[in-house]
Design brief:
about 230 residues, alpha/beta, Rossmann fold, five-stranded parallel beta sheet, elongated
Length: about 230
């Protein structure tokens, strides 16, 4: 069954491409343009809410607060033009799980959506994770092997985040190129192979048991360990 995502955004030029992108990813997407409609839509229990702060009727922070007071247990990503650190902290204090400042890249949003949905699914399941294994901090964009940080470049981090959010599933080369390098990238796909090679070396050098496996002619899969993305 497809994950259900609620998009709360009053600007059509932002909402439309976002909804289309999420639908292409296979999500069941509902779009509303106001805070009250967002609160009403929570009755359908979406697994994740992408919430704009600048709504025409109710401020997004208030929507977030009311959702948590109503015991909404799904993930909430706040997106906003308010880029200050104070606003970010306040948003997280109100119950948001993640925060993206406008303008944001669709690839980054997609990676965060996947990671949050996986994290939420794990929290509702029986897998407690491996405290000594691979751990990905999406908010801080940092990766750890146990307590040791693994130094990754931005592209290596994005590739790993996508693979981890789809653990044990094959992610196609085309999807990785579109999500990490942009769908209009005209360079060689060998760039992906080089990035995967460096990523493997760095994970192996710190003893991570998770492996990035190539599936010939298709793409790549992260397998082994339990991880925490």
């Amino acid at each position: 069954m497809a994950h259900r995502v609620l998009v709360v955004e009053d600007e059509e030029d932002i909402a439309f491409p976002l909804v289309r992108t999420l639908e292409r990813e296979g999500y069941d997407v509902e779009w509303v343009e106001s805070g009250q409609k967002a609160l009403d839509a929570l009755s359908t229990t979406p697994e994740l809410v992408i919430l704009d702060l600048g709504l025409p009727d109710i401020d997004g922070l208030e929507v977030c607060r009311r959702a948590r007071e109503a015991d909404y247990q799904g993930a909430i990503i706040i997106v906003t033009a308010r880029a200050g650190e104070l606003d970010r902290v306040v948003g997280l204090d109100y119950g948001a799980d993640d925060y993206l400042a406008k303008p944001f890249g669709l690839a980054e949003l997609q990676a965060r959506v996947r990671a949050l949905l996986r994290r939420t699914s794990s929290a509702n399941g029986s897998d407690a994770g491996d405290p000594d294994g691979l751990r990905i901090d999406i908010d801080a964009r940092r990766v750890y092997a146990g307590t040791e940080e693994v130094p990754l470049t931005g592209k290596e981090f994005e590739v790993l985040s996508i693979l981890a959010a789809n653990r044990d599933k094959v992610v196609s080369r085309g999807q990785l190129m579109a999500d990490v390098w942009d769908e209009n990238w005209y360079g060689s796909t060998k760039t992906l192979d080089v990035t995967i090679g460096r990523l493997r070396q760095k994970l192996e050098s710190v003893g991570v048991t998770d492996r990035v496996v190539a599936v010939r002619g298709v793409g790549f899969r992260l397998e082994g360990g339990s991880g925490d993305a």
